[in-house]
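Subject: Sanity check before I submit

Could someone independently write out the structure tokens for this chain? I want to compare against mine line by line before I put it in a report. The sequence has 290 residues.
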Amino acid sequence: MTIAQIFERAQHDGTLPVSFEMFPPKGELSLERAREVAHAFAPLAPDFVSVTYSAGGSGNNAATTHIARMINDELQTPSVAHLTCISLKRADLAAKIEEMRGAGIRNVLALRGDVPDGAPTGPGCADYRYAKDIIPALVDAGFCVGAAAYPEGHIECDDPALSIQRLKQKQDAGASFLVTQLFFDNQYFYRFRERAAAAGIAVPITAGIMPFMSKQQITRMVFMCGASLPSPVIKLLARYENDPASLRAAGIEYACRQLEDLAAHGVDGCHVYTMNRLDVARAAMSALRR
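---
Independent answer below. Compare away.
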């Protein structure tokens, strides 16, 4: 089943699609760990599972296709294989398309990706600059293609109107669903949803939520994604600064409250950045089923 069909069915049935994101093992680790994570998620019955992709030379980008195929075949759960275009040549894209088609992958999340450290970025270094540039080829190859959305704008873009314009270009290029970057204040998402609708963006937008697990993690996320820290989060960080276990529990509970509020406001879907943690996935699904 394609992700577009999942959203169509949910709209017809009045249900809320809930999805998980997991990442492949790094370096030389066995893919058995990814299988363990995926099988642990399966009883929670997510509507689909997305699998991240590394373009930074970590050696795990090939694992994305293998894991996505395993989720499809062994768990009978729709999967989404991430694909970044940074440093990608046309021949590379053609090869990835054949690899994914050969594995029976039906859904792809097209992303620009982070520029690897030390990678050349000038003219001729890559054939694609933005995610929208690879979407048409993926659609022509028969994939259901999704793209990323940024409720607070992309960290490299200071103009909210331009950020929405670029998002519309992804839809126009053929993206049939959108997954947002993480955010900690739902009001940003609601305002973003209104702006997107006003701009003619009509494809489903599923809201991405990641629990904060430590002060180090949330600091990294803020600088990587440009997500704002609302006062309640700052107060929790201060309260549990010297109590990692309590901070982790508070972060999961905060994310669950976000998910409940999003569901109450009729979002198209909720996407949980699980960090491969079963307790995060279980808590999120429990909150949404309440």
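---
OP: Matches mine. For the report I'm noting this point. The chain has a mean pLDDT of 91.
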